[in-house]
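Note to self: keep these together.
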Amino acid sequence: MPTLYVVATPIGNLEDITMRALRVLGEVDLIAAEDTRVTRRLLDRYQIETPITSYREHNKHTKTPRLVDQLKNKDIALVSDAGMPGINDPGRELVAAAAVAGLEVVTVPGPSAVTSAVALSGLAIDQFVYLGYLPRKRSDRKRLLESLEGGTRALVAFETPHRLKAALRDILDTVGERRIAVCRELTKLHEEVFRGTVSEAIEHFPEPRGEFTLVVEGRGDELPIGPDAEERAVSLLAGLRAGGARAREAVAEVSQATGLPKRRVYGLWLEGEGQREPA
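Structure:
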């Protein structure tokens, strides 16, 4: 029966491809690739001459029905630029359409930036929440992070170089000072793994370059804040309020001094004014 093979490809180093993946890519009738130029470099490396067609975000709606039709009598391999298709890459729609049509869909597993980063983080992680790329807009990003602030599972996310510092600051503002691993350019020539606190990571990457995967520890394993952190925060807030400080500046300063998330410090500020934190 003709089959759609969902094939993982290297996330950087071209040697990170399985023997099975190479065999499948060489045996199928067609390869549907996110970027044909990227895939061609991989195929040329291993002297594979299978025809390639483009299957990407901007043409998936027109290409999906065509590929499903071709799958009736051809084997097709689906690949993205790096890692597993369908995970923050084009592919999900083709897999779903092929399954609905009753066609065979088989995975050929391989490299993953997500699991590689978790393994390299050195953090004690039994469970994690995968967030994909964090939202572009700061308000959306903070809203998402705030919804996860109380969770005990680690957070794993992708980030671009031009948004990295803003994302790290928002992580510090919302979930507080925690241990983090910032993995840059995994398996590539300039691979780097930074391990430390969120504030240390902000200082470590003054001019971020490359592709980043972030692993943030979950609540409960975070850095010890100390039993008197809230009492100290209340005292500091009272002093700042008496000195005429505004809420935003006071909350930022006390959060940095105590390690408490800004959301909790803001709640203490409101309590000091006889108000309740909004639900």
